[in-house]
TrEMBL record:
Annotated localization: Cytoplasm
Protein's organism: Peribacillus huizhouensis
Gene this protein is translated from: efp
One Pfam family in the UniProt entry: EFP
GO terms assigned for molecular function: translation elongation factor activity
Primary location: cytoplasm
Pathway involvement of the protein, from the record: Protein biosynthesis; polypeptide chain elongation
The organism's place on the tree of life at top rank: Bacteria
InterPro entries from the UniProt entry: Elong-fact-P_C, NA-bd_OB-fold, Rib_uL2_dom2, Transl_elong_fac_P/YeiP, Transl_elong_KOW-like, Transl_elong_P/YeiP_cen, Transl_elong_P/YeiP_CS, Transl_elongation_fac_P
Family: Belongs to the elongation factor P family.
Protein's name according to its UniProt entry: Elongation factor P
Length: 185
């Protein structure tokens, strides 16, 4: 059991028969009445986000999530196959469970697969990934990095805003939590 006063971003807890990850939290001490903790939680089974308020000092069960380093191999119909780097065991995850993560997954990429007991919850992406630009308007001489932005389609099919000097074939570092351009690779 863990006290809600000890919440940290990224902590996983069991509440209302669900496994939740703390996205945000705020300790509130009103002038009148008891203190409480306002939190924003993400359900690891279905991705739903919910705001929940706990009384200060309330206890919740900590969910022990195991992260296994795995390699993304390929898509097989509506499933995607991952292989454990140590035991070479392969698992299939339904596309519905990793819809957001597929925007950043390329073949042979190493990721962490989250499991709770025998249940596979999903995939944890690295903070940044390197992807190649497959389609964008050509850069025009005189455009600067501090100028505007244009759309670029990457190898996984997502579109991000990039500076004008980026060209087709360039490799870019993309932030996976925001889906935004960081720099050239």
């Amino acid at each position: 059991m863990i006290s809600v006063n000890d919440f940290k971003t990224g902590l996983t807890i069991e509440v209302d028969n669900g496994i939740w990850q703390v996205m945000e939290f705020q300790h509130v001490k009103p002038g009148k009445g008891a203190a409480f903790v306002r939190s924003k939680l993400r359900n690891l089974r279905n991705g739903a986000v919910q705001e929940k308020t706990f009384r200060a000092g309330e206890k919740v069960a900590k969910a022990h999530i195991e992260n296994r380093k795995m390699q993304y191999l390929y898509a097989s119909g509506d499933s995607h196959v991952f292989m454990d780097n140590e035991s070479y065991e392969q698992i299939e995850l339904p596309e519905a469970n990793i819809e957001y993560e597929l925007k950043y997954l390329t073949e042979n990429m190493e990721v962490h697969v989250m499991t709770f007991g025998t249940e596979t919850l999903g995939v944890e992406l690295p903070k940044n990934v390197t992807l190649e630009v497959t389609e964008t308007e050509p850069g025009i001489k005189g455009d600067t990095s501090s100028g505007g932005t244009k759309s670029a389609t990457l190898e996984t099919g997502i579109t991000v805003q990039v500076p004008f000097f980026i060209n087709q074939g360039d490799k870019l570092i993309i932030n996976t939590s925001e889906g935004s351009y960081v720099s050239r690779a």
